[in-house]
Specification:
This protein has about 600 residues and is an alpha+beta fold. It has 15 helices and 34 strands. The chain folds into 5 domains: about 190 residues, 3-Layer(aba) Sandwich (Rossmann fold); about 80 residues, Elongation Factor Tu (Ef-tu), domain 3; about 70 residues, Alpha-Beta Plaits; about 110 residues, Alpha-Beta Plaits; about 110 residues, Elongation factor 4, C-terminal domain (Alpha-Beta Plaits, 2-Layer Sandwich). Bound molecules: guanosine-5'-diphosphate (GDP) and magnesium ion. Magnesium ion binds next to α1. One of its GO terms (biological process) is positive regulation of translation. One of its GO terms (molecular function) is translation elongation factor activity.
Amino acid sequence: MQREFIRNFSIVAHIDHGKSTLADQLLLKTAAITEREFQSQILDDLAVERQRGITVKARAVAIYYDYTGPDETSHVLPGMEVPPGRYELNLIDTPGHVDFHYEVSRSLAACEGALLLVDAFQGVQAQTVANAYAAIEGNLEIIPVVNKIDLPVTRIDEVLNEVETILGLDGSTALRVSAKQGLNIESVLRALVERIHPPKGEPTAPLKALVFDSKYDDYRGVVTYIRVKEGTINKGDKIRFMKGGTSHEVLDLGQFRPNMVACESLGVGQVGYIITGIKVLGNVHVGDTVTHAGRQAAEALPGYKQPKPMVFCGMYPIDATDFEHLREELDKMALNDASFSFAPETSDALGFGFRCGFLGMLHMEIIQQRLEDEADVDLIQTAPNVTYQILKRGGEVVQIDNPVETPDAGVIEEFREPIAKVTFIVPSKNIGVIMQLCGDRRGIYIGTEFLGPDRAQLVYELPLAEIIYDMHDKLKSVTQGYGTMDYEVIGFRAADLVKMDILVKGVKVDALSTIVYRGFAERRGRALVKKLKEEITKHQFEIALQAAIGARVIARETISALRKNVTAKCYGGDISRKRKLLQKQKEGKKRMKQFGQVEIPQKAFLSVLEAG
Ligand code: GDP
Ligand code: MG
């Protein structure tokens, strides 16, 4: 394929503005899939994506479009030649949620342009802004697209105004489509050809291909996703991963259309996959550069800034013999998702497991669900915490990914927590409640900007620990669903923090320790033991639950002793009900851990989340 006839683009938008639906339409209109194969959000093929209706992983697809030349609605880029002909359009679908910015930024680095989708009613939202800025920073051509013009109520003119004032893009060139009904999809295909530059790069230069993703296939081993920047890669070539340092033969290569279709070679600007028979998962690094083993490129491509996990939790197999199996599955997960990290750890309470790092809470939930769906291991997950820094008296700075690691108060010079810059876009009438909400959470007000007559953007600096658990839910509830938020971690700041321990029947359960702001400690301690009381079932004896800071108990609850037998309630022989109850108890047991004499269910470990 000549590079003049290639266009590489992403679709970026706020969540639910229609990216995946538009991707479906582009596939359908270019006959990459047939009407019969057409199912909604065809690229969202992970079980978790289908269940939740959201995109988690970026996807690449090559489609072919027969361009017939400009018409009166075209806005061809100045100086660009667009001969009629067959064009290869490489589409990279991206997730919209804040936790997956990393996927977005990686996708953008493999493209020259982006379709920026904005919902015709909702207008510009927090992630529209974040994604548009990422595309602008990446120097991409941005094509604004107002989607959902079929909605009974739209605000197209206001939306275009927002696109101009907030994003600084020219609203007059925006396309107006309905991805759902397939309206004006042709105008999108045309604009991709006319308004995005073809890839640059020298076809005869030494090979440089960017590894932008990879996944593990049980039969074929590691499948590496690449975008060729310079040179050509052929089947049978001997290649080398420049950072990984290993060499391999290209056993197979091809494109996603949307299924894997083999071809003989990939040239400058093309996007596809290579299979090299690698079975060792650690050998492929996202952001690495593929070159030829013989004729090597002088230097590697810049790659990606490795994202730092900010949220951590413990994952422990319920059945200790699953430990090695869990390790293998975590390895595969880390290969498919470079922003996920893990390391072995032990807990007095839970035994051998792993400390896992995530970019945010949704990321954590998704990984946990994928582990259960794809790997079939039952897990106990501990409550998540953010990462902290401690400056010790001697001047040493240590990172704390688990509250248990907190050193004694005596050696701590400064306890630091991550701070996020949070951007809210809300109806103007909700500004007051948002300020209240942020004030209650130790927020520092930065500024307000009005986006139109009745919408405003508020910026705050807030401790990450105060926003990740439930800020999004609170925001939705106080704005009746109209508010959106986005955040970015900007650094660490000293705060008055302490470790709070939980004692169950006098014994400290390490997996329940948390780090809290001292001023909130008593309130949180009381809420937590109350919540634990609800989660832990009665035993044959009384169980004391205590929250403590050091040796000082700050809250206490007692679970009274059990008198009746579980099945006693079902006297009168309703056998099926009785069986059901026992069955339920058995299932519940799977997710329990024994601490001395006390059984603590999985849910109790997450109580911290609800004990705000
Ligand atoms: P994504 O999160 O940006 O990928 O959004 P999806 O493609 O998953 O779409 C979110 C929701 O909006 C789905 O329920 C779609 O059916 C709906 N949707 C997408 N495009 C349109 C459109 O043009 N009109 C209407 N009315 N609904 C749409
Ligand atoms: Mg999607």
